Amino acid sequence: ETGVTQTPRHLVMGMTNKKSLKCEQHLGHNAMYWYKQSAKKPLELMFVYNFKEQTENNSVPSRFSPECPNSSHLFLHLHTLQPEDSALYLCASSQGGSGILSDTQYFGPGTRLTVL
Amino acid sequence: AQSVTQPDIHITVSEGASLELRCNYSYGATPYLFWYVQSPGQGLQLLLKYFSGDTLVQGIKGFEAEFKRSQSSFNLRKPSVHWSDAAEYFCAVTDLTGGGNKLTFGTGTQLKVEL
H or E segment at B103? Predict the structure, then answer.
């Protein structure tokens, strides 16, 4: 496979469930990102990982827990979510490093999450 | 802080007509600018990017964009639109707060193509 892949593509969960989203990049990048895209709202950056270290947490509620075991994989663990968390969750990767102005992000297809 | 404005929420064009999507940025130094496209239910695909040099950049799918520093704009253009270009288009600028590696996105422009 090439590029950035995300699984599952669709997920329906109850508010008491625990689930995880998975992202894998095959581009040899060192930085990975989680974004939330809700209807009629701008794209929201949630987390950034650079060389497996979290470098950005954009005031995300603790019911979202990221994990980056290596530079190729990124997870988003979900528990006790709310209906307003229903959205498209996008993963992206880039070459990474610090202060690289030209760093270009490549996105996966997203996971459509519905919280009942 | 950097910001990106896409003034048009929706645009409708006829197939074969030319297209221009507007993007204005707010940034003190030389910006690093991107255009992405998102088809329904899909992720964002990079169309083109501008870092420096020639202010007219070519991208994939026949798109181009022109950087105009005097107008703080980076408008996306296509001479002849195809029905498959119907999608949402996002302009973005590199966000330098916190050491870079972040993008600030506009709110997007939804393009509809009439046959």
Answer: strand B102-105
